[in-house]
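[audit] Reproducing an earlier prediction to check determinism. Same input, same settings, fresh worker. If the tokens differ from the archived copy the diff job will pick it up downstream; this log only records the rerun itself.
[audit] input (252 residues):
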Amino acid sequence: MFASIGLRTALRSSCCVLRESSAVSSAWSVQPLLTGPSVSRGSFAIPPPVRHYARVAKKKKPGPESQLSDLPPTLLKKDYAAVPLAQTTDDVVKRLLSLELASHTEKLQLKTEQLIAKVQRDESDHHSVEVQVAILTARIRNLQEHLQKHHKDKANKRRMLMAIDRRKKLLKNLRLVRYDAFEKVCEQLSITYTFPPEYYRRATRRWLAKKEFCIKVFKAVQKQKAEQKLKMKQELSSTGAQVAESKATETQ
């Protein structure tokens, strides 16, 4: 009887020890993963669950103002601006025909027409130098806005540089031929014309020696040409004298 009672007490004590050891091991296994103030339940500390907060959204830097930002959304598209029926339709159709739902290409066409209207000579002018400068200006500004967002687009960068060079040539010729039209174009389109830099070369010793040698060669060649011209004149004069003498003898 006493043996059975002793076995029961030993088994109870061993079960309690096992429960305590398992609870402690579970607490130690969770403790390094959880943070925050712990909550005590009985004789063991249970930490609270971890809260993973989202990152703060980065504020986008405001980019430069687009050339299409001054176009009102209620303005009709280019193809429907001259149609009188488009002005009297309901609001849904007007919204479909306006710039509110227009594509970027349609907005760019309308902006190009506005720039052309500022500088063209008359209503039938579509191929003059001023109109070509206006078209190139709209294209260049559109490519500049595109490259500010996609700076690795090499193909469009090449197209923009080619358009800039073409516009420079047109403005240079217009400045030489019609200066008043050149000033009007620059003022209406907000273009700043900069003169090309003067040619500059570093004067090294080798360049100075080469230049001096070239000058000597040039002078020697000019001297030889002068001597040849003098010989030719002497030969012509001697042949002329001989011809005159032969004529005189024939007449006698």
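[audit] rerun output stored. Observation attached for the diff report: The first helix runs from residue 2 to 30.
[audit] end
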